[in-house]
């Protein structure tokens, strides 16, 4: 039996709906964005959008409307979405459309009415005595507009004040107009008409004919301006010109449509304030745009202020390892129509660049320590001056600027290749200087606020920084030349280290020496022929570590006992290909290590396990932390030519880079794959293998016909998995000797497929029309032919997302020497709404443990709208025959990952209290593993 | 197709749209197919068919010879061509419990394939255990049993509605094995009974008294209402024809899949579509639907298409109508004698029909052939022509008659 774990790497990014209003408080102007199963709440501020909260729902958001005093979100299990539910809430009454059924709800269901015709759109009207609905419907004669009054007493629908038969054949939207005008605007393919019973006004501006208007939003409360968005991403303003009659009544005089400019293809629009509009898009990136009074050079009144990345619809994707470092990058075909693009996604830590200076020839970076005054006043200018200054002073010494400068209460230590100098910061006056007795060059040095250790060839010197004096305490001679050393103070030693870590040439060893006597504490042979280039002692989460980076980008790390200097738990990872420099920095009050190399990496600890996370930078040679007024909690990063200052992301997340491309597909070939050096293609109902002959022709080698429509192909060895339009999956074997296909097994469930993948030799993953994932298993041990022919469905998981593509691969760095993740294999999937997720196999014990956790979490987490979690997956019915299959052997875990901290803690307590009776000893084990798993989910 | 696939892939369309469109296309292309045969077991006319909904795999048939057969519809041949095998037969030679006379209705227990129910002109209704093929229960009636039906949605009750020669509709409880209730109102034989697929307590019954009654079985009193072909317009009907559904015996009932509408057929050669909530005649005109059956007529509707279709036996063919348009779309011709029953397979849009010619015919959608572009590419490149798919050789000109 196979157990699989489904997890979200990237939440859905496509926007289905958005509304603006006062939601979090009467004063806050909020923007609410619906992204399939998620709802994001923002506050609109002068600086832009500030996220407030993000909530997940056990259902898909079909329609979202503001409803005083609170927002009402209609969520529903799939069943309703299939019938296109829509709801409007005004009059404190709810109007819900499910197919052709209208439901009027107050506190409870008031009345329902089947319209017995295809309803296109329905809205409540303003300014009517009784609640009145206005709707467009279609019958064989065409489309018509009708109004109904809702009688609250009789709870039924009565004939409304007006109707209009035979409106435009493509009329698709009703916009109710507030008073003083009242009535409604009907948007069609070619025309915009206004109706209110007495008045009828139609315009057919040529500009709107080009495309179809898909969304609208009212700008002014009085309804005199509306924004319209079409399928080509054009933004229009619809203006209602008013006219005051003799009797003082205000009536509509004319309608005008003006093209404002181009945005992303809008799915929904909402006017925020001050001419700012949020353009929610499903097919491209969502945007925050500003409407200007004057047009720009291109005649556009629209200026894009901010762009929100959307990966959806992910039509195809593949995992590539461009740098051949074991870390996959995902390339997705995202967007549709003009928004089509290729996007490259990789996992890692992001650096937000705040400033950069071109400084050719940077050889090192400056480190500020101690002094509160220096920290608060240090600015980037000072920093750059200091860098220059250092360069200048060292230049006078005509030596290579090997500089570690320590700012320590207005005094700094400057180490050059010839000497160690104590310099006052203000006057730059030399206070004290230490030189090697024979005048030899200093090769490497390390210092903290009170100590300096330096190496001259094989000789180590230990200096202490006293007030106004550098004092040599001791020296020793090592067996080989010193390659690197470190005296970072650890533990409670308060600025003074009692241990010195040294890396040596020739025997390639890392050693720990006691200070000040240099007596050896521990010797660790690193093996190989690459010398250590950087050694560092550090503390993560209360545990001490020694890290040692080699010249080829490999990194050894050990547990370190600072009392005895003994190293333990030796592990090795490969970070890059170039010599690596290790630097510590603190971010959010935890210590981290930055490994500078051709593939910069941030090393941190998570649940007592070291995590290596890539940084979205090309190359970093040196790095030092910076914390000043102008650049709080920042890092200064230098490569050969540039000094960059930036801050680091709080969380590990996926970074998305966008490149431009277009995609065009023609013909009835639904799928093509390379297969044993031949071309395998699916053409309608046929799976066909082509051979590339010596005559440079494609020759058909064999066919397989037993499909309805073979849409998807995946191969592994001689096996082919075929995803059929409506007959689930089929496993074929290619017989190279006979040159033919053999049907091995088939899943006989009537699944309408959307993507397939081979998990391993026996397990096959499929995604289908009703937003489910399922796993089928081949039963090789079966005794009868018939059983062998059946792929057994062993797992079903309701994802709530339409999966377009599966791809083997992972975004996390592989072979990091961490074998504690209890999962096997990794298949990524991409969905219509821009979600990226992962399916991975795990053992039965893990499965039952996690299932238990999930069930407990579901007890703790209160779902929004009180939709039970159990309802969500079971709602995965296929609309025709409504088999609801039981959820088994696959466990749902997606939702737990988005928990708030406290809720998670609650579940922990529950789980721990449950476990302690029988498995107190195992407790730690699974907690460790569990955190790994949770971590694994990015 | 490609445009539908693209729209589904990019999220422009609800995925259900592609499914509905393709299902509709497939229903419109139903043909008698050389690739599919059904074992011929019955030695006499076939009165009734039923496909279970759990796996969509097994089909029951009941014949005038009193035999019940279970077929496996699944294709295990690894080839497109196959014959639906009869996996077991409740026949005279093997089973002493076999019905003595014609089997009028067979139906799978809707929630489990371990049980099915059959009723016969031998005045009995039998509840069979599929494993042992022995009756677990047997109900005796005073007259011929014409029809019975179990609710496809009921979870709270397990009532079988039974229509016999007697004007009283019988409700039998499978739990207690007893007849627990009768519904009085009709004045003629009950030719068809159907539970609503929407509400587990709503039952429709059709009778030779040319009326159709809708019952709420929770109520002790009479029926909820009687279907009136004239929608209450008395001027159109003679006094005795008030509240009649047809001008002849009503012998067929079928709810639409959503339960919102009810179809009825009568020996007046008409088919009518009713709003099942209000009893209103929707006045959809299907034209003349020849109906010579003196017993119940088993007809069916499509599921998951847009628009939906009605399949109704019509002489020796099966007529396909647009459900709401009333338009005659096609006549499926293939039987040599009158067709008495048909059953739609919603998973694969296939239709099975049984007739007096003792045959069960499978009507299967035409497959899309490999694209033209593909063949062009082949010829342009001078490559060897692709091996011809044997399935396409016959070019689908495969009607038996």
TrEMBL record, chain A:
Quaternary structure note: Component of the UV-DDB complex.
Family assignment from sequence similarity: Belongs to the DDB1 family.
Domain comment, as recorded: The core of the protein consists of three WD40 beta-propeller domains.
Principal place of residence: cytoplasm
Short name of one Pfam family: Beta-prop_RSE1_1st
Localization in the cell: Cytoplasm; Nucleus
UniProt gene name: LOC107728187
Keyword Translocase belongs to the record: no
GO MF annotations in UniProt: DNA binding
Superkingdom classification of source: Eukaryota
GO cellular component terms listed in the entry, alphabetical order: cytoplasm; nucleus
Domain RSE1/DDB1/CPSF1 first beta-propeller span(s) in chain numbering: 14-70, 119-308
RSE1/DDB1/CPSF1 C-terminal domain ranges (all copies): 643-875
Name of the protein in its database record: DNA damage-binding protein 1
Biological-process GO terms, alphabetical: DNA repair; proteasome-mediated ubiquitin-dependent protein catabolic process; protein ubiquitination
The species this protein was found in: Sinocyclocheilus rhinocerous
UniProtKB keywords: Cytoplasm, DNA damage, DNA repair, DNA-binding, Nucleus
Record's function text: Component of complexes involved in DNA repair and protein ubiquitination. May play a role in the regulation of the circadian clock.
Pathway membership, UniProt: Protein modification; protein ubiquitination
Upper taxonomic lineage: Eukaryota, Metazoa, Chordata, Craniata, Vertebrata
From TrEMBL, chain B:
PROSITE patterns: WD_REPEATS_1, WD_REPEATS_2, WD_REPEATS_REGION
Chief site of localization: nucleus
GO CC annotation terms, alphabetical: chromosome; Cul4A-RING E3 ubiquitin ligase complex; nuclear matrix; nucleotide-excision repair complex
Entry's transmembrane regions: none
Matching CDD domains: WD40
Subcellular location per the Swiss-Prot or TrEMBL entry: Chromosome; Nucleus matrix
Keywords, sorted A to Z: Chromosome, DNA damage, DNA repair, Nucleus, Phosphoprotein, Repeat, Ubl conjugation pathway, WD repeat
Region: Disordered, residue numbers: 372-401
Alphabetized Pfam families for the sequence: WD40
WD repeat copies, ranges: 96-138, 183-218, 243-284, 332-363
A Gene Ontology biological process term: proteasome-mediated ubiquitin-dependent protein catabolic process
Pathway info: Protein modification; protein ubiquitination
Function statement: Substrate-recognition component of the CSA complex, a DCX (DDB1-CUL4-X-box) E3 ubiquitin-protein ligase complex, involved in transcription-coupled nucleotide excision repair (TC-NER), a process during which RNA polymerase II-blocking lesions are rapidly removed from the transcribed strand of active genes. Following recruitment to lesion-stalled RNA polymerase II (Pol II), the CSA complex mediates ubiquitination of Pol II subunit POLR2A/RPB1 at 'Lys-1268', a critical TC-NER checkpoint, governing RNA Pol II stability and initiating DNA damage excision by TFIIH recruitment.
Subunit-structure text: Part of the CSA complex (also named DCX(ERCC8) complex), a DCX E3 ubiquitin-protein ligase complex containing ERCC8, RBX1, DDB1 and CUL4A; the CSA complex interacts with RNA polymerase II; upon UV irradiation it interacts with the COP9 signalosome and preferentially with the hyperphosphorylated form of RNA polymerase II. Interacts with ERCC6/CSB (via CIM motif); promoting recruitment to lesion-stalled RNA polymerase II (Pol II). Interacts with KIAA1530/UVSSA. Interacts with a subunit of RNA polymerase II TFIIH.
Name of the protein in its database record: DNA excision repair protein ERCC-8
Species name: Sinocyclocheilus rhinocerous
Gene of this entry: LOC107743893
